[in-house]
Amino acid sequence: MNALSSIPLMPKVVRHVVRSLPAASVLLVFIHLARNGFRGLNRLGWTEACLVLFLLVGLGLSAWRRLRRSALGAPVELRDDLELGGALIAAAFIVVAIAGGVLFPIVYLLMAFLVAFLPRNAGLTLLGVALVFDGLVTLGAPKGGGWPSFLTHSLFLMLFAGLYHMVLSARIAAARHAENDAVQKRIKEVEERARTFRLISSGTQDSFSGMNQDEKWLVASVKEIEGAVGAALEVAETALRTHTCAAFLLTSDDKSLKLYDCRSTSERIQRERFNAGEGIIGGVLKRQAPVRMNSPNGLKGITYYDGGSPQVSAVLAVPILEASGLVRGVLVADRVMHEPFSDQDERLLTTIAGEVLRAMEVERVMTYIRKSRDEKDRFFRAIEELNRAGSPEQVFVAVLESARQIASLDFCAVTLVSEVEGKRVHKVARMTGVTTAGKALEGRSFPDNNGLVANVVRYGAPLPGRDIKAMDRQVIFDEETQIRGLGALKIFPLTAGDRILGTLVAGSRKKALDQDVLRMLEVMAIQAAQAVLRAQLFEQMERMATTDGLTSLLNHRTFQSKADEYLAQSKRYQRKVSLILTDIDHFKSVNDTYGHPTGDAVLRGVAKILRDKARDTDIVARYGGEEFAIIMPETDAKGALVIAERIREAVKAEVFQTELGPLKVTLSLGIATGPDYGYEKQQLIDLADQCLYHAKRHGRNQSVTVAQMQGGKKLQVAEAG
To answer: Which active-site residues does the annotation give?
Structure first.
């Protein structure tokens, strides 16, 4: 049974042994060098021969394994690099040990090679192996040179490895930089050709920083046009039997001509830009009509050749004309022999010029379609972002960013309108595209006026209705606020149903915004209004769910949640936290004597004092009925008592005016502090409640801590001036 079970294990054992041969061969050479082996040719024996053979077998296995992994597409492991490098280092040190230190530079070169072409981890590890081998050879031999030689070798090993790695890295970086420069140069050439073909505007601000999707489209468009021009010229050359047949297109400034393709037996064709208004070609551009000329003695006015040009006896030039009459370039055909071009030749070249123009127009239309598609994609993405926004602030950020991307705006703002004491008030909620000083306008409110924003809200229609020349003198928000440097402005109302929530202000330094962009901005303003309304309703519902309707303080449910949160934080960081429970003294008699409306007014007044006297970090809540609660993080019993006394004194001093005369009330307050009495919420609430009723039983109108209630030392409170 045991014999049978061991049979399947044999292949694994064999593979493991074979896998270990390279490392074992390096290790044995390592040990033999440490025992002063390989010391000269006259001392070599069978042991050394077997070790060398074993090392060669290990080296061969390592190389074979790397080649096999590469053929299979598997990644090379660190172990493979170390085995191959270790075998090479062992072989180099065998040579050094036999021949002497004069051949030690072989090790320097080998290390430079390994560090340069192997991964950094493998290279550094092999450098350490080389230093160990060097220590065995140099320090272990009686005449190895000792520590001075070892330190010298170590220094040069590290120096060679480091410098070679740095030089190779620098060369690789330089090669990548040169390759990137070449790519950028090609992209710029394509961009210039695209401008000439009018695929993009000559005034575009697009930058070709990498081969993104737009650049791929641009390159494809240029190649398509170049292919069409080349095919047309081949047809013209064959049909017209020309010496030169060339297409010259006007550059983006319409002042020069540049060769874009030609079929010519001459090497003197003009390949740089030349003046578009000179010679025969200049006449074609001015007349916008074909020109045919011939002379047996040679023609003058041939400007599309360099010096030493051939003697042209016949020339035919036709303009490349758009339907609107705009000239895009010239097709030229010439002959050296005196053979004038015919009417049929002119019709053929004119047809070919039309085909060249058609190729350009097709690609320009395709570019326009792609641009329109991209604009629509950005528009729909912007709508999605608005629909995902959950708060008004998120809506403002989404609408401003989306509007700037869609319309390339230089200035954008969102305003909100509200009613304050029956009067309309506008607020700049968010803006972008302004200086740091301009950002200070965010959050600023201004009353209703005759400015553009106020009028858009008043009339519910976009303004201004037409372009404004004196843009800097226009009142956008109010008289005290001016936005300078705008060339175009449009303000849209944020309309949600029959409500106007505010405005979207869109400005540009350029000329007027086109109608497609304005329509998209108008739709975006409608969507933004819906998003703002949803966010406001959500905030209102959240506020109603978390606050008390009478006092506007947090309600009991929210207090319980906040208490858990604050106590957990205090427990985690071992910080003090205090809880105050307070009750209005004799509040039932207030309701019975003065009525519930007066009681509600007293509750609102006490709540306001609690909110004003508590700190910004404190949580103030209506606990129930005439009871209130305050959670005070980072506060010990003494600090809580100080604030409690301030609240008590403020309530005591407050006078409530009623129909039956002035009314004054007092508070009783109970204070419990953690971790003095633990961090458990219910425990602290119970202790604070006990302190509160202790205060009521002992005269009311006082603040009581747990220590005071339990008869401990009374805390001394010093009121801050």
So the answer is: 626
